Amino acid sequence: MKIIPMSWGTNRLTIEDLNEEEIQTVQKLYEQGDYINKWDGRNLDKEYVYRCFTVGDLPPNGTKEQFKIQVIRMKASRLIVGILTTYHGYPKPETFYINYLYIDKEYHKQGLGQEVIHDLLRILKEKHYTEVRANVAIKNWPALRFWTKLGLNSINGIYGDKEHSMNAYAEIELIMEL
């Protein structure tokens, strides 16, 4: 199985598997991004990080061994500034799925998310993945701009409500061939 490293880094960041003692801290960071729920129609998951740590955020027939939740830290201070959850091998063995990426709002617009993804893409190529996917709420314009700018600009599908309305939601699955 081709799994990304437990610990890896960029120029300014260290990305490491979540430790149990960090669950509450990382859950607070996750909850900071609850504004996304107005775009995707979901409710805030008060157990998201714990669930990811214990059983994973899995696709149909997925296994915990192929899932990762990692924290993103500033190298200099070791301060946790982000979360990355991923799945290795869905829907095909050579596909890498980015479930969730969030950077602390205090660190937005500093290029940290781009830095993480640029290095992650390098690792995925070394591991011989052939594509990377991310699912984004259609109303989440900042995320759509972010992912398409990084090269995830092919649309695999649109899922969700069929009719547009203020209370309708849909997601778009973006793909990048590696």
From TrEMBL:
<feature type="domain" description="N-acetyltransferase">
    <location>
        <begin position="13"/>
        <end position="178"/>
    </location>
</feature>
<protein>
    <recommendedName>
        <fullName>N-acetyltransferase domain-containing protein</fullName>
    </recommendedName>
</protein>
<dbReference type="Pfam" id="PF00583">
    <property type="entry name" value="Acetyltransf_1"/>
</dbReference>
<dbReference type="GO" id="GO:0016747">
    <property type="term" value="F:acyltransferase activity, transferring groups other than amino-acyl groups"/>
</dbReference>
<dbReference type="InterPro" id="IPR016181">
    <property type="entry name" value="Acyl_CoA_acyltransferase"/>
</dbReference>
<dbReference type="InterPro" id="IPR000182">
    <property type="entry name" value="GNAT_dom"/>
</dbReference>
